Amino acid sequence: MKKITQLFLGLTLSLLLSAVWAQSGNANQYPNKPVRLIVPFPPGGAADLIGRAVGNSLQTLWGQPVVVENRPGAGGMVGAELVAREKGDPYVLFLGSIGIMSVNQSLYKTMKYDAARDFTPISMLVKTPSYLVINSTIPVNNVKEFVSYARNNPGKLNFGSAGNGTTEHTNAVMLARMTNLDMIHVPYKGISPAMVDFLGGQINFIVEQGVAILPYIQAGKVKVLATTGIQRSAVLPDVPTLNETVAPGFDAYAWYALYAPAGISLAIQKQLNADVNKSFTTPEIKKRFLDIGAEVAVSTSNELADFQKNETVKWGTIVRNAGIQPD
Question: ∠ CA 134-140-142 to the nearest 5 degrees?
Fold first, then answer.
């Protein structure tokens, strides 16, 4: 009986050690099968470009397929809800944005995901300032003249956006509140129709991301007055910031970051962060995004978590004070 007991204990210990070794080996070998990257917006836009760029960089590093899946709908919430249900699965990654991870919490009364609870922050990817641009309907030459003109014409200037609560909307609202301006918001079903009316003169101005507006600025079709970043844009260094001109402290970027579902192991979270920092910071990738007005800005996981928390507080205050409601 003693020998049988010893044999049983030895076999049990062997099985336990094998399980520990297997778990360790799987963590060290991650990923050992294809990874899904959920992009919660349609193909062809800025988010899709960023998602495919980070997916390709990780695929090259890993030697494993990274399959980008576009899951648009409800301002990105359809994709977010899908990933939130994949708790603990490191083979599902998610491209989060300022709206999905920070603004929506205050914009919507009920949501099927919690941005802080249901996701594991991996790394910031890209930050892009927006630009205050006007067309010929406004007879000014710089941002100080713009503010003066708007104050002298309360309720007469209008601005377009891709919809209530979008970056075009919230940036313009923050500018109006910091400079005491009275302006009219005209929401559209997406940025394309807003741009059509802006270029056609029906909309006086727009505060738009560089990815969408830079071609028109560079072609001389619109006049750029200022940028929303705390510092000047590297792609248009002669354009002043709102912070240094009419709205001290103005600091607004559209941003995109990589997440995994909540519950993945700390070891894989650290590996993902290291792999993104290694693969997504090549000179080629940095130049590619700089050319479209965006900045590659990778981070630690903790830095992303803190940044997201601060953004949620900042934009939540703007949304509530302005009484912004979803479309």
Answer: 80
